[in-house]
Amino acid sequence: MPEMIQINFSRKFPLFPLAGICLLPHATIPLHIFEPRYVQMVSEALDGSSQIAMATFDGKRWQQEYHGNPPIRPVVCLGQIERYERLPMGRYNIMLQGICRATVVEEEMPDETRPYRIARLAPLDANPEDHEAELVGWRRRVCELLQGDPLSRMRLGADVLKWFERDDIPSHVLIEIVGHLLMTTAEDAERRYRLLAEPDTIERADYTEAELRGLERLLSSVECQSTDWPKGCSWN
DSSP state, 47? Predict the structure, then answer.
């Protein structure tokens, strides 16, 4: 488990909006930072708290206005730069860990000295650990799903199951891990944002369980239709 990270919500945070990427709390994603405005953002963040807010675009205006300031959705994931590598020409490779979901309260556009947006945030789910007793059944059911066919034959199932076997990881964290590993492609960004924007921990648990059961049904259906796999095909 990561160490406790301090967050000062009285200050404003840099906004880093992207298309097709939606960070979840407790998940970690690698990012290559090359645009000058975001290179400056990362550099200045590293001089401070090393925290930036990952945002997603609202609608498709970003396709025409990406280099401007297209609208973003109201829920963001505040992230901590865990590791970074400064590259030639000032670029960065960073590893960003999701800390918590938050809503944008007030946004400020770029100015002459700051080419990126910043925002004042409010935590969306301040005490998810309060629901641990209610999540005992969810944890047991999802663990059984991952141990059974056909999910047990997938790399996804094995990866997630390792986390479920650890007693030191709370169930509210496992919800985020399931969501992160279950929704991995750019096409999954909408589903991942739905999980990010849901303020209720129990609703998030129900959503991830339903997604897993849907995947189980899909794989079972495919298995029934084809028992002789072409050479080279596998569940992974």
Answer: T
Residue 180, token pair as written in the block: 């992160």
Phi, psi of 95 (to 5 degrees): -115, 115
Beta strands in the chain (DSSP E): 12-18, 28-33, 51-56, 75-86, 92-108, 118-123
Read off the pLDDT of residues 148-183 as tens digits, 9 standing for 90 and up: 888 888 777 777 888 888 889 999 999 999 888 888
Q: ∠153-155-159 over CA atoms, to 5°?
A: 115
- At 166, list the tokens: 């650890």
At 109, list the tokens.
């556009």
d(CA 141, CA 174): 13
pLDDT in tens, 5-16: 889 999 999 999
Q: How confident is the model at residue 140 (pLDDT cuts 50, 70, 90)?
A: very high
Count other Cβ atoms within 10 Å, centred on residue 236: 8
Both tokens assigned to 138 = 């969810």
From the centroid of its chain, how far is CA 208? 13
Run of H or E residues at 37:
helix 36-46
For the chain, percent of residues with pLDDT exceeding 70: 91
Distances (CA, A) of 84 to 52, 75, 81, 89, 116: 13, 25, 7, 15, 19
Look-up of token digits 């700051």? 114
Joined together, the tokens standing for residue 60 give 């498709």
Closest CA to 99 of 26, 8, 164, 3: 26
User: Whole-angstrom Cα distance, residue 45 to residue 33?
Assistant: 13
